[in-house]
Amino acid sequence: MKFKLNLLFFSSLILGIALTALIFLKVGVDKIIKSISLISWWQFLIIFSINLIILLILAEKWKIITTPYHYKSNFQRILIAILGEQAISFITPIIYVGGEGIKTFILKEDDEEKSFTKTFGLVVLDRLAEGFSLVIFFLLGGVILFFSKYFFSGFFLIFVSLLILILIFLSFRIPQFFSKIIDFLFKKKLVKDKERFKKEIEIIKDYIFHHGNFFNRDIFYSFIVLILKTLQVYLILLLLGTKPSFFHIYFIEVIILLTGLCPTPGSLGGLEWSLVFIFSLFNLPSFDALSLAVVLRATQLILVALGLFLIFPYSTLKIFSNNFK
Fold first, then answer.
1. Cα–Cα distance between 320 and 325 in angstroms, integer?
2. Tens digits of per-residue pLDDT, 270-286?
3. SS (HEC) of 59-125
């Protein structure tokens, strides 16, 4: 099993590197370097500061979602857990998942009320709030596009967003519908421990029904994070000399969010090719698409390196737990 996972990781990494190298050579490395050189070091610091603001908001989100259970984790520990989660998720084949375990391990506490299972349920709940905010982001964007000249694009986004919201509502309100989803995931071997999965879902359902106000606040802060990420993309393109419209910026951010599902570490290759594709549709320079990708990756890699460094003591403790008893 471990061999298969390692094989999958290195195969996807090689694929991502090959795809990235191919698109860079196709567009022209000289053009990309010339475009990136328009951004000075202090302008890059401004761009990176948005990542730091987002990091603080993510920490506040965790404090909000854990308010009913009175977790004692200090701000520093929360930041380490978030950076660790982002770092592990970044290097896994799908960028949105993978780091929840290390975040849970760092933030869990000794008593039953804050056990690994309960903490993991809260981590998943936090991610669920981010998922809700993403659907709302698509929905509001669709409404704006619908009432502008992009009727069909707006209608499609509204339809898909509402469909997802209805499915989520049915999952939590109709037990039979919810049970069928669990049985399907278990049958397809997407869930290994059916009983544990049910227990974690019950934690989530109980939380939403009894502490919905905190969950709603989490969704709001998650939506603010999406807005900040969109503004960051807009700022980078402005510094690169491009003046995109709202329509362009919105769909560029949507593409960036969707490439997180690309089965390569850090969406390597998927992000670059997708940005070149969407830029070509908008008649924007392809080298600016790759320049945007390079700047975004630079900000991500700084946080990933920091996260891996900070979680090393925790990962060592987990891997060699027998030596720390």
1. 10
2. 899 999 999 998 889 99
3. HHHHHHHCHHHCCCCCHHHHHHHHHHHHHHHHHCCCCCCCCHHHHHHHHCCCCHHHCHHHHHHHHHH
Q: Tell me: the pLDDT tens digits for 66-94?
A: 888 888 888 888 999 999 999 988 888 76
Structural domain includes residue 220:
yes
**Which residue range forms the structural domain that includes residue 293?**
31-317
3-class state of residue 188 by DSSP = coil
pLDDT at 32: 92
The pair of structure tokens assigned to 45 is: 């610091």
Which region, left, alpha or beta, applies to residue 133 given φ > 0 means left and ψ of -120 to 50 means alpha? alpha
Residues 304, 90 contacting (CB under 8 angstroms): yes
Number of domains in the chain: 1
What is the Cα–Cα distance from 94 to 193, expressed in whole angstroms? 21
Contacts of 267 (CB under 8 A, 6+ apart): 16, 95, 259, 260, 261
Residues near 91 by beta carbon (within 8 Å), at least 6 away in sequence: 98, 265, 266, 304
Q: Classify residue 269 as left (phi > 0), alpha (psi -120 to 50) or beta.
A: left
User: String of b and e for 229-245 (b: at least 16 CB within 10 Å)?
Assistant: bbebbbbbbebbebebe
Q: Which residue has the higher pLDDT, 290 or 95?
A: 290
Within a domain: 17:
no
Vertex 77 angle, CA 76 and 83, to 5°: 90
Three-state SS at 245: coil
End-to-end CA distance of the chain: 28
- Looking from the CA of 57 toward its CB, the CA atoms found within 13 Å total 20
Is residue 20 included in any domain, yes or no? no
